[in-house]
Design a protein that fits this description.
With about 190 residues, this protein is an alpha+beta fold. It contains 2 helices and 11 strands, in the order αβαββββββββββ. It has an 8-stranded antiparallel beta barrel. Strands 6-10-9 form a 3-stranded antiparallel beta sheet, with no helix packed on it. Strand 7 and strand 8 form a beta hairpin.
């Protein structure tokens, strides 16, 4: 009787462990989210540059990591379209969990560019700081997720090898937080 009990206990433990490991592979807030701002909203928020924002959150492809305190658990592919531009400005952030939220570092462009003399938000042909692309936070909300600029964020259009660059700061009321709704991943 005891050997059967132990086999069941070991098998149940293995299933629970495998289930927990599989759950750990799915990061918090995984999925796709989007918001397209309508004309009425944009008319009421004249300083808002953003006309559309999307984010795709998936398990990281980062690979083996040495930092065990804040391991990268997700990739956050943030795309922002602004007034007067056809193509998106992007930041593919490596994200770590902070409670049920994600903190994502901004992605750096490989291009070299002059340092900006101005720290104003908006589209620039120069880099604010070529070694720091900033960060953003993703918080779960009943409607979807709130993406907020945590520290000055640099976004770059594809193919990511040069400008122009889009900058947002956490102090810019019109362009620092975006509530996105869950959508199908395309």
């Amino acid at each position: 009787m005891a050997p059967s009990f132990w086999r069941i206990a070991v098998a149940t433990g293995a299933v629970l462990t495998a289930g927990a490991a599989g759950a750990a592979e799915t990061p918090p807030l995984a999925g796709c989210y989007e918001r397209i701002y309508d004309a009425a909203h944009l008319s009421a928020h004249k300083g808002q540059l953003v006309v559309r924002a999307t984010i795709s959150i998936a398990a990281t492809k980062f690979g083996e990591q040495t930092d065990k305190r804040d391991p990268i658990v997700a990739d956050g592919d943030l795309k922002i379209w602004v007034r007067g531009r056809k193509h998106s400005f992007d930041s593919i952030g490596a994200c770590w969990a902070e409670g049920n939220n994600l903190i994502c570092g901004g992605s750096l462009s490989a291009a070299e560019a002059d340092t900006c003399k101005s720290k104003r938000d908006g589209i620039r042909q120069c880099r604010i700081d070529p070694s720091d692309a900033g960060s953003f936070k993703i918080e779960g909300k009943p409607e979807g997720v709130l993406v907020s600029i945590r520290e000055r964020l640099e976004l770059v259009p594809a193919p990511y090898d040069g400008g122009p660059y889009l900058y947002f700061s956490p102090t810019n009321v019109e362009n620092r937080a975006f509530l996105l709704n869950r959508t199908d991943c395309k």
